[in-house]
Amino acid sequence: MLKEFKEFAVKGNVIDLAVGVIIGAAFGKIVTSFVEDIIMPLIGMLTGKVNFVDKFIVLSNPKNVELTSLDVAKKAGAAVLAYGNFLNVALNFLIVAFVVFLMVKQINRLKREPAPAIPNTKDCPFCTTPIALAATRCPQCTSQLSETA
Question: How far is Cα 8 from Cα 17, in angstroms, rounded to an integer?
Fold first, then answer.
């Protein structure tokens, strides 16, 4: 069983998957930072300096404290709908999905096989020598070729 496990663990597919997961996690952190540190502040500036992370709707406030931010609301034990955080996560997902789409599209474009070449010769039906498509007589065996050969 140990031998089988070793063969499984060192297979190319398992190693490729592990590398993909590790790179994907690192890429996710980059995208999260990109959205939270670059995109959302720009959107906030365009919408009147709104901080989307602190956008929430209070469902219940058991301690009746003033809820000025999402952190304060969570610490107070208030039930909130944190739609601003959801917008950040949704934007992260859209950016990751779009980048993965572009990567897969480029990989598929590189893998695409070239269109088959249009043949400019045909085989003589009598001697199987390659001859020009427009030939009416085989230069090798001198047989008369029909129009369909």
Answer: 12
Angle in degrees, CA 109, 115, 119, rounded to 5: 165
CATH class of 2-112: mainly alpha
- For the chain, give every domain's residue range: 2-112, 119-149
pLDDT band at 149 (very low <50, low <70, confident <90, very high): very low
Is residue 9's pLDDT more than 80? no
Q: Burial, 121: exposed, middle or buried (Cβ in 10 Å; 0-12, 13-18, 19+)?
A: exposed
What DSSP string runs through 92-119? HHHHHHHHHHHHHHHHHHHHPPPPPPPP
Spell out the residues 6+ positions from residue 140 whose beta carbon is closer than 8 angstroms to its own. Answer: 124, 127, 129, 131
> H-type helices in the chain, by residue range?
2-9, 12-34, 40-46, 70-75, 83-111
Q: How many CA atoms, within 13 angstroms, populate the side-chain half-sphere of residue 148?
A: 0
Confidence of residue 49 (pLDDT cuts 50, 70, 90): confident
